[in-house]
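Handout, page 2. Input:
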Amino acid sequence: MLGFMLVILGSAVAAALAGAGSAVGTGIAGQAAAGVVSEDPEKFGSLLVLQALPGTQGIYGLVGLFMIINKLPAMGDLGNITVASGLAILGAALPVALTGLVSGIYQGKVCAAGCNLVAKRPGEVGKGMVFAVIVETYAVLGLLGTILLLQRIDLG
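Output:
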């Protein structure tokens, strides 16, 4: 039963840490966007995109959770998952969890800087998005790492 609990822990870690990174990141960007919109409400649409970008890490964590849960055997066989397999799943969850946490926070900071850019130069929202997407790359790589690791683990 410990193996099963480790699998559940891995799925929870993937979703929780990546989701926390998104929550912090969208909060940081949202604070900056709200300040700009208070001065110029016309910029809301451009700033909403910048605020939403750090939210993707939470989606990647949820994808990791679903992929882990889909590896579980039929309900009657849950007690047969070894501790080694459970630890392997927990380890496989770490790339998406940690890159989601860190990149979500830093992407929020980059998006906040992008909001400041839009405040001064409204036509430059695309440049702010490009800066943010570069940070996003590492969250995608973390998800890819988790996917590749999960493909090599057999729970029975």
